[in-house]
Amino acid sequence: MSVLLDDVHVFERERTNSDLSLKKLDQEKISSVEVNVLDTFNDGPGETDSGIIQKAEDVALKVISTDDDPTQQAITFRSVFLGFGLSVFSAVLATIYTFKPQNASVSQLFCLIIAYVLGEAMATLIPTKGWFRYLNPGPFNIKEHTAIVIMASTASSVAIAMEVIAAIDLFYNENLNAAVAIFQIFASQMLGYGMAGILRTLLVYPTYAFYPSYISVVSLLQSLHFKGALNHKKRKYFWMVFAAIFFWEWIPQYPFPLLTAISVVCLIDNGRSPFVRNLFGAGSSNEGLGLLSFGTSWTLITQGSPLVWPLKTQINSYLGMAIGYLVLTLAYYKNSFNARDLVFMSTSLFGADGNTYNQSAILTPENSLDKAKLAEVGLPRYTATYAVSQMCYNFSLGAALVHVLLWHWDDLKSAFVGLKFLKGNQEIDDPHYQQMKKYAEVPQWWYGLLFVASLAVGIGCSYATPTPLMPWWSIILFTVISAVIAICLGFIAATTGFQISITYAIQVLAAFIHPGEPITVMYVNLYGNSTAFQTLAMLQDLKLGQYTKLPPRVTFVAQMAGSIVGSIFNYTMMIIIVNANREVLLDPVGTRVWSGWIVQQYNSASVAMGALGKELFTIGKPYWSVPFSIILGLFFPIPFWLLHRYTVKGTWLNRAAANVVTPIVALYVGYLPYSVNGQWWSCVVIGLASQWWARSRRPAWFRKYNYLTSAALDGGSQVIQFILSFAVFGASGQAVDFPTWWGNPANLSVDRCAATD
């Protein structure tokens, strides 16, 4: 509390200064109505408070310090020991979470906090004199810490390849050789890494590529390691907020789950009306859309990134969600896709009788489509909300491709004309990049060689089975497609913090290229989906290294080491779990301890899109609109770009058109038919309070503490979530249910909106 009290007078002075600055803005005055408020951000170390930051990317210059101490060692006994140790731990834990009913993950902030505690302990406990000085060269520094975090978080990013290999094992009894499987996992990750390295002059070095979600991570790292009175106050503030959320978060998560989704409408209805449940329910997976439902669990709220996403990103997501309430409800109640006899929300495949579809009944022993059996069983069906959601994800991908071409054409032309992006050292006017030029860069040919070698290994692994899992030409084709898509998605992620899923689009495309081949369609995920996903993850880690001034070659080694460790332990742990729990993982419901819901998604898609692509997704078939949504999505950004280009500059219409990001709007229209939805209205309130009110009315607090607050809340909630997962949620093998009471009902969902069995 003393941290906040110390700043009261400073805040008052800065409020006066801010008000004076606001008066000078005239037509550029911030307004909650005008979307011109879009971008957030702040002012960094060493700068005076000068008002409100208008450009989102300026946060990278004004919140994050460019200070660097080139004498600090990054490769030490501590960083190597903790890097490998935490990589093993996070890879094993992430694989366990993959087969749990809880939707949990090992986050980068979780790795960061554990690494800090252990690193400081080693720096304190290991002697510094004599031979021990090689083990403990001095204070635990930011470069060691960053190297550990990059290595551990790379290992914890459970590879899509591992999930696909598990699905092939479970549902098709195809057991890959251990060496082949491990090399396949590693190769699919390294394809993305090689691609990220090649693109770093376009999507890492420049200021516009600021990756909003990483600002809080870097702010925390600098606050923990930089000296000075301000950083001492920041550290104190961080641990206060960390402790507060740590002791709070267990309450909504365990004894009082009603607090995860508070809906006045649901409390009044008390589970009587299906319509109320569908529209307002939000406490359980696939319960409802969560209209006007508020949550107090930060574990759920942080999914909307309300403290870190620029206001532009948030407003576009909320706009899409608002449209989604209407579209998804109408789709169901107007009986679109003949779905009124199915449940409102589910991602499963259903038969004509409304029960789970029996996929094994339509496949031959060789796992290809048996048309005679299909005629008897009939085609599978989607719920209306899931079909619309798939369309929206494909709308989003099509819109993303054109959005980047229209709004970032100059950047693309500058990079690709003369293949300028392939040149490692460029004149880029970014202070962080300029500071990095003192360190030896990773040559572009390293990344190029890594990319080619990984592609060769991937092709070889695909042919290391009696029947090739995927032909060589298809591997190359989908890798190229993924590379092109990764550039577009990279621009959006770098400038808005938002990541677009391409899973549906890739699998539908694979269904047309490999009709009637479910395993091949599933395997395509390694090259069409995983490669783009890994590219984005690696780009963000490269940016993290640039922000913290970690030498590029150390970043390269850390990512390579993390991928190697992760590949080995992802596969090893996956085999142990699958062999020990095969029947449970095959069950659509699973148990409170183990569940195969993640790998089942790959299997469902392989059946619907692989075996039945022509029967479901071609013109005139039940879901033909799903793949063709990509084409329609291509036109979404054009009207807004034309409005911005041909209306009077500076007018409300001109600015509003520039701030509409159609890929985000389109995706969020179909974002709600998944998991729980009790947190989104809390995200709206917190997002406006942070990225509009605090940024414009309390700019000094915003610069110093907004992103640190996000890191503290994320860190504290993730640590208690980890403890609860093993203590009571069944990650250790035994779940412990909290006794039922009004706030934890036995016969109603946690928000009291839906009756349960």
UniProtKB/TrEMBL annotation:
Statement: the UniProt record of this protein carries the keyword Transmembrane helix: yes
Any coiled-coil regions, as ranges: none
Compartments reported by the entry: Membrane
A Gene Ontology biological process term: protein transport
Molecular function terms, GO-annotated: oligopeptide transmembrane transporter activity
Source organism superkingdom: Eukaryota
InterPro entries associated with the record: Oligpept_transpt, OPT
A Pfam family recorded for this sequence: OPT
Annotated Gene Ontology cellular component terms: membrane
Family to which the UniProt record says this protein belongs: Belongs to the oligopeptide OPT transporter family.
Name of protein: OPT superfamily oligopeptide transporter
